[in-house]
Amino acid sequence: MGRWTGLAARLVNPLALGSLAFGLSACALFDFGPPGPDDYPVKGIDVSYYQEDINWRSVVADNTAFAWLKATEGGDWYDPKFDANWYGAAMAGLPRGAYHFWYFCRPAMEQVSWFLQHVPYDPYALPPVLDIEWVNSKTCPGHPPREVIISEVRIWLDAIERYYGKRPIIYTSISFYNDRLRGAFPGYFIWIASYKGHPIVRDPSLRWNFWQHTEAGRVSGIRGRVDRNVFNGSVREWQAFLQGRLRPES
């Protein structure tokens, strides 16, 4: 994954600041497994109304560097806690962004319009995120073919980038990525959900930038469980990401 493949390369070559190479061979060289979530210095969460009222100052104090907030789903559902989370996280000084959950039975431009209606333009916000994964839905059964998904998703990504001025991040599972997205969107940051192990173990060829490693995490300021994530890079790279100076591998 070039510079984005993470910590193991630094263990192999601590002077490497440009191209990083993370592979199982690096782990085998030192006879240890891949890094765990605690080995990544930049940690964050993603939330929705399921987390109810959040004390964002406590979240920040608990070593949380970023948060993505569910905003919309499809073309007709809006998270009732989005506004409180959007402004609450900002007031606490936490970098935050919004995410949209993709609905396969809505045209892309309907989903674009719905997102634009509910997510304010904020030049200081994190890039918008598109959450796309397989779901069992009675109202939208079936699995669209790769070419249809890629065409529709590209419409959403392009329109959102034009409006907000930031290239969106793609959140997905390893299975969906391999089934429908692999190779389709070079130049985009990829956020992978993998609860059963480090992404490099499950798919050594996978290119990823964020890792959602659990849906049952605990963070101060949130009463129940919460999704926890890590950024695949150093603190310095995270600052470059926040400033828009970091680019994913094409």
Automatic annotation (TrEMBL):
Keyword line: Glycosidase, Hydrolase, Signal
InterPro entries, sorted: GH (IPR017853), Glyco_hydro_25 (IPR002053), Glyco_hydro_fam25_subgr (IPR018077)
Lineage of origin: Bacteria, Pseudomonadati, Pseudomonadota, Alphaproteobacteria, Hyphomicrobiales
Official protein name in the record: Glycosyl hydrolase family 25
Entry's transmembrane regions: none
Signal peptide annotation: 1-21
Family in the record: Belongs to the glycosyl hydrolase 25 family.
Organism name: Pleomorphomonas carboxyditropha
Pfam families named in the record: Glyco_hydro_25
Molecular-function annotations in GO: lysozyme activity
Highest rank taxon of the organism: Bacteria
